[in-house]
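Go through this:
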Amino acid sequence: MRPLKATINHQALLSNLAHIKKIANQSKIMSVLKANAYGHNLLDVAKTLMASDGFAVLSVNEAIQLRENKFKQMILLLEGFFSKDEVNIASELRINVTVHNQRQIELINQAKPVIPINIHLKINTGMNRLGFMPNEINYLLESLGSNPYIADIILMTHFATADEKEGIEKQLSIFNLISNNYNYPASVANSAAIIRYPESRLDWVRPGIMLYGLSPFENKIAKDLGLIPAMSLTSEIIAIQNIKAGNSVGYGLTFKANKDMRIGIVACGYADGYPRHAKNGTPVAIDGHLSSLVGRVSMDMLYVDLTEIQSANIGSKVELWGEKISVDTVAQFSGTVGYELICAISASQRVPLRNINA
């Protein structure tokens, strides 16, 4: 069996949730578990985060899994439903749904659910992805408030630049201009907004990436924010090559040695979820010693510099990210975000997950 594995530290998940609760103060916590809990395993993470007030998922199947496993919290479908059948499932299992277009309202009316559905009415305040335009909301709320198939209503929006310099002021002001006219609960804050903008911590907050110990900000890592990474990706050296100055390593000859070097071959590649575009110099840890990537990442293997780590040998442990190497740092060296890296581990279906402190 290949030595590559992803280890999930459930104590870190608990610590991050406690940190969020402290920041969010009186807001209820809707823990986001989409994408198989960002690659950390849906049901395992849900069990660890039982203290959450609710869970947000993407698909009906994820919601069904949670209900079948006796989770009683509010469950929200972030994109809502796509058919009358899904309306009835949501009704029967008491799953909350995001409603962001007129077609979804029509589906509710066509399905005539026996148990009225709780909806999260999504307002497009400027991201222009999902949601009704602000000038539609007054009419919609008049209609939905008297709809016999709809029970509770929560107002929501999503910020496009909570993690960037532009911030949330414009979007939040548009949202507040609407929501202040009503007495509905409100949900607007994602991870970046929870951390940076106290005014966005309304009735519900929706932490995603920060639950898993990653930073939502490009210029900060988890440690800067009091978060603990929950996933470690580790492997081993499976071969060693001694190369001369002027020799290259890997496909495309993208790295050329400027001195005699000792190169370790690691059992991990882009098919496992490690980024193909990780640059030369991307940090790794070998038996606890800091080193770096050399050459282009291939499908099943990557290459590290062992020149200054003479104790390293075949079988030496390699941390690709985790305690010593921040996944946020690897993402920065790869021109992407930590979200993509941790989700790619699950998507690859090649990396076994191991739980500790579960």
